[in-house]
Protein 1
Amino acid sequence: MAFHDVSGVKIYYEWHGPEDAPVLVLNNGVLMNAATSWGFQTAALSEGYHLLQYDCRGQGQSDHPPGPYSMELHADDLAALLELEGVEKAHIAGISYGGEVAQAFAAAFPEKVINLVLIDTVSEVGPELELIILGWIDALKARDPQAFFHVTVPWNFSPEFIANNGPLLADARKRYELLDFSAVQTLCECFLQFDYTERLGEIVAPTCIIVGEQDLLKGPRYAKILKDGIKHAELHMLEGAGHASCWEKPAEFNQLLLDFLARSSSEGL
C-alpha cells in the first residue's frame, strides 16, 4: 500500500502484477475501495497487467476533503497520480461511479488512454435515477446506516444474488456502520451533476461497455446510450448479473475484460 499527495489530498493506491506489463487502472464504484472490493479481479487481471487499484478522494483510505467534487476533478487527480508514478499511458476501467470518472478522464486526457472499459455506468442521470440517489442522500443525511443499507442493496444486486447471499449481505450490513456518511453524500451529490452524453464523441479510445442484464440502477438502457455515443465501442451484457456485476459474475466479467484488451491490443485499434 502507498499514498501520494495530489493537490494537497492524500490518495491511496496499490500495485499488483508485473512492473513491465501494460498498466490497467481500476476505478471504484461509490461504495467500493481499492483494498478489498476487487477481490475477484486482482489475481486474474494482474497476471498479464500491472494493475493499479486506488481510492479517489472521498473514498476508502484516501483523504475525504469537503466538497463539492466533480468527475473532472477526479480525472485530474488520476492524471496526477499516474504522472507521479511515471505512467504515460494506461488501459482505464471503471465500474459505476468509477465508470463516470473514466469517461471524464478519457475525454480530458485522450493521449493517456490505450483502451477504455465502462462497466454498469451512465453518461447522464435520468429522472428515475435521480430519485433513487436522492433517497440515498436522505439516508446519508440522517446518518442512519440501516436505512442506507435498505435503500442501496436492492439496487446494487440482482434478486437472485440477494436471495442466495444472506451471510455476505449480513457482513456488509455491519460495514455500513463504518461509512463516512458525509464523504459518501459528497460523492452522490457529485454524481447527480454528471451529464456527459453530449461529450461522448470526445472519447476516441477503443471502448468496451459491460452491463449486468439485471442492473436495475444503471442498466442496459444507459449502456445503449454509451454505445451509441462512443466511436469504436462494443457492448456486452452479463446474463443474470445485477449492478455489481464484477461480484456477481466474476469469472465471466474477468474474461470479457481480458478478451477485449487482448483483442483490441492485437488489432492495433
Note: The longest helix spans residues 250-267.
Protein 2
Amino acid sequence: MIVAQTDAGLHASVDALRPLMYADGGSALQDRPGHVRAASAVRRLGSRLVIVQDDVNAIAFHDEESEETHARLLPRGPGGRRVFDDVIGNKKGKLDLEACAALPDGRLVAFGSGSSPMREKLAVLGASAEPRVHDARALYGVLRAHAGFAGSELNVEGAVVLDGTLVLFQRGNGAARGGLEPVNAVGTLDLAAFLRFLDEGGPTPELLSVARVELGEIAGAKLGFTDATLTGDGRIAVLACAEASPDAVRDGPVLGCRVGLLDHEPLRMTDVLDAHGRRSTLKLEGIEHRPDSPLTFDVVADTDRPEEPALLGRLRVGET
C-alpha cells in the first residue's frame, strides 16, 4: 500500500495555456474536427509533442518550433466514424486512448482505458510510419483479472517505461460493483515480455507487482490517477484529479488536481495552482517532462466540452 502525503515542501503551478487548433482546420471527409478534443496523454517525439485523444480516432502532432498542430489519422471506428460523443450517440464506440508510453526503440504506444471491450486496444506510432492499432484483449484480461490492480472497474490512465519494466497506472474513479471497490493502483509488467506480445504475438505478459495507492480526496471527491511521466532526474511524476464522476465511463466536474513525485519515499503530492495562486480545476490528463528542467512539464487539459479545444500548458514543480 502506498499512501500519498501532502508535502508542504512541494509547490506546483500551471500556466502558459493555449488552445490546440489544427493548422489546416477540420475535415468533414476525414470526420475530424478543427481542434484537438479530449486530450488524454502527451509524449515527446523528437521536436514534436504527440497528443493522444480519447474520443477522436486521430493523434495530434504539435511542433514545438512552429507551434503548428497537425493530425495523424487512426482507422475509422464503428459506423465509419472517427468522432465519438454523447451528442452523436456513439460514445460507446470510442477507443478511449488514455495513456502513452515511450518505448526504447523510439516508438510510442497508446493504451485504451480498458473500461469496456471496445477500449482494449493499443495504438503504436513512430516518427513517420502510419499508426497501427492492435487488439490487446488478452492483456486487458490479465489486468482486469487482478482485483488488486483493477478493483471494480479497469481504467488505465498512465504508462511509463522504467528500468526494464512497463509501469501502468490504474485510476480508481469507477463505481463499486461485484463486491469490489474502485482502486488507484500501480502495476508493473516485464518490458521485454510486453514487446514480444506487441510485436511478435508472444505470450500475454503477467503483472509482476501491484501496489494499491491511497491518493486522498479534494472537497469530498476522491483523487484518481490521470497520467504519469519520468522526471529529468529519473523519478516518476504523477497527475491525479478529483472528479465527481459516477463511474469510469461518465465525466463529472473537476474539483482540483494534484501532482506528485513517486520515488523510494512515500508518494509526495501538492495541489496544482493556477496563475492567480488558486487551486486549479483544470482536468489535467497528460504530463511529459521538458528537457530544459528536471521538474518542468508540458501538460494537456481536457475541457470535457467537445466544441472547445483541449489546452496545452506548462506545469512547474518546485521542491524546498
Note: Residues 2-319 form a domain with the Neuraminidase fold (CATH 2.120.10).
